[in-house]
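User: Last request for today: this protein with adenosine-5'-triphosphate, please.
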Amino acid sequence: MTSTGAGAAAIVVDDIRKSYGDLKAVDGVSFTVGHGEFFGILGPNGAGKTTALEIMEGLREPDSGSVRLLGESPFPRKPALLPRIGVQLQASAFFDRLTAREQLETFSALYGVGAGRVDEMLELVGLTEKAGTREDKLSGGQRQRLSIACALAHDPDVVFLDEPTAALDPQARRNLWDVLRVIRERGKTIVYTTHYLDEAEILCDRVAIMDQGRVLAMDTPTALVRGLDAPTRITLERGTLTAADAAGLPGADEVGEDEQSLVLTTRTPAPLLAALAERGTLDGLQVRTATLEDVFLQLTGREYRA
Ligand SMILES: Nc1ncnc2c1ncn2[C@@H]1O[C@H](COP(=O)(O)OP(=O)(O)OP(=O)(O)O)[C@@H](O)[C@H]1O
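Assistant: Here's the final one, the structure of the complex with adenosine-5'-triphosphate:
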């Protein structure tokens, strides 16, 4: 726990609103983020995630509502808060012509901390071997990781990351997930935005799903998915079992067929999977449970499109 006291929240967002002309970018958003929590703000493009994040960081003033960040109002900027928060800068905010190491040294100096953590930060984000490479010669994923390292240079308590995995290839995204997990293990409070629901489901302790400026749902990903009470779909390659046999298995609620596959729908997957295993039909079997995309569909009536 930090100096805000045991049990106190790291961030309290209370009914914030922000309009641009007639557009309600953030339309009455409230939530609390606990110390050490990895909190995700999710939603499609234009949902209001960045605006909400910038209000939390103190970069933008809300039209109404309030934010307490580590017990302080972040807007207007509080010098006392700055050493305690890390904000990931967009890659374009790097200094020209500096190597990865020099970027980190410069950020450390700006924060008034020594360069003692630079090697550790390079190691944390997997850039030790690129320390001497100029930032404009790094890949997109490497630049993202460097920008996260710069946000951590002064060892802040709370880290804000705006779409850190956007525009990365799948491998680079996964590498970055490992970095985010390590930051979380170090006890940092992380607030991040993403339009990748699958990723948030894996990484976040809790998520707020936003759409059109509002929070539609907020909870742990597991609780949100469980709340759907959606069935599990088990797909078998066609020919492994007849539809009639499948319908007689314990737990098989519905059986459907198409040219390639047999699809069993169940609310009790364990006995059904056990029965399928007994019949030696597990080869090529796929199990699909509900995801946050299904939660979004239920909440909005629309398919999720990032
Ligand atoms: N400075 C601004 N002036 C006018 N409109 C803005 C401004 N900033 C954001 N908006 C609009 O407010 C809405 C919310 O934008 P915001 O960037 O917060 O959404 P987002 O969920 O972060 O989307 P994205 O994933 O595309 O970044 C959008 O419709 C956007 O066009």
